[in-house]
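tool_call: predict_structure(chain=1)
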Amino acid sequence: MILSLSLVIAVLTGISIFLSAKLLGAEAPPRLEDDKSREVLHETVLGLREALADASNNFKIEKLDFNKEKEKLEQSALYLSDKLEEESKARKKILSQKKSGEVRLGHIAEKLAPFLEDFTYNPENATFLGQPIDYIVFEDDEIVFVEIKSGNAKLSAKQKHIKELIQNKLVSWKEVRID
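tool_result:
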């Protein structure tokens, strides 16, 4: 819209300058047969100048409206950006609190596990380690490494490695004597 108004203004300006030069005798005096033709040409130039002024005013008004709308949109975008950042921070905080709560709950569950129905070993035979494996259970016929998980918790990389070592029977006994 602004581009088309600029084009109209440029064309009207060009025509106005050309006709003014012709009327004012910038080059050769106009060769009009009579005063009537000269008057019509003069009215045409005045009409073009008026149309040019109107188009220029309309352009200025539309430019102001455009700039106001642009400013409103920029302010709105800035407001929405700030709100998005606030929401993102709030969600991160909530997620952090949730994870922290889950970890605390997991630690509690680890300590209570030997006393729950799902723990199939005698609690008196379970020794709590905590890291990297939660319990070692010393049964009469086997030694069992027990890792307690709750919810969607998964084994850490270190815990997976220990599990593989045990499954591949790469567990050994060492006696260290201190005199």
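agent: The beta strands are 126-128, 135-138, 143-146. Proceeding to next step.
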